[in-house]
Amino acid sequence: GIQVEQSPPDLILQEGANSTLRCNFSDSVNNLQWFHQNPWGQLINLFYIPSGTKQNGRLSATTVATERYSLLYISSSQTTDSGVYFCAGMYSSASKIIFGSGTRLSIRP
Amino acid sequence: DAGVTQSPTHLIKTRGQQVTLRCSPISGHKSVSWYQQVLGQGPQFIFQYYEKEERGRGNFPDRFSARQFPNYSSELNVNALLLGDSALYLCASSGGNEQFFGPGTRLTVL
Questions:
Q1: Which residue, among A12, A103, A25, has the nearest Cα to A68 in the 3D structure?
Q2: Is B98 in Cβ contact with A31 (below 8 Å)?
Q3: Is A56 on the interface with B (CB under 8 A)?
């Protein structure tokens, strides 16, 4: 079946470090989104990025749809960046939206 | 502008009971999707509705049902609750392809 895999599952960094989170998907997606889930469970939109590259402050994302992967970059990490990051793809072939299992990021001061 | 709203915030039920969760999408959005997120996992897709019609369904038993109303709000119903139904239930609305999530309803089944 369709799969969305995220790596690494856990990442611990010092404040100020840079990080790269990866999302691989097994089938062609119509769209791809990155989210940050805060400790209260709220999913916060980071990027809607079916292809190409986008930047928003210290965060940027790149999706290479032909190679079925997306990357989320976080530069100069801050403690407030801690939390779980999810990618999700919409698959029209299956009429469903599938989330990865997430990357838990911990930024230490 | 108001975001996606969900009610109730928290809910405690016992096994075998039925529950109804509610979601109001962002104004102008016609699509609503429901997800279940158990602790430590990513959200699992349950349903997508667009213009009051079901457009997608995940791998959930028939105890789960949903509907969308003419004002595009939606209800998720779960019958014959099991302990394993304890989870955070998330609603997302969409006006195109990008989804925006509500704060969720945390359901505990005892």
A1: A25
A2: yes
A3: no
A vs B: CB pairs below 8 A: 59
Assess contact for B81 and B16: CB atoms under 8 A. Answer: yes
- pLDDT tens for each residue of A34-90: 999 988 889 999 999 999 999 999 999 999 999 999 999 999 999 999 999 999 998
* Residue-by-residue DSSP string for A33-55: EEEEE-TT--EEEEEE-SSEEEE
Planar angle of CA A102, A98, B25, nearest 5 degrees: 100
pLDDT, mean of residues B5-34: 97
Rg (CA), chain A: 13
Lookup result for tokens 């502008």 = B1
**ω into residue A8 within 30 of 0, thus cis?**
yes
A97–B97 CB contact, under 8 Å: no
Interchain proximity A88–B100, CB inside 8 Å: no
CA dist B101 and A17 (Å) reads 29
> Is the Cα torsion angle A62, A35, B101, A92 positive or negative in sign?
positive
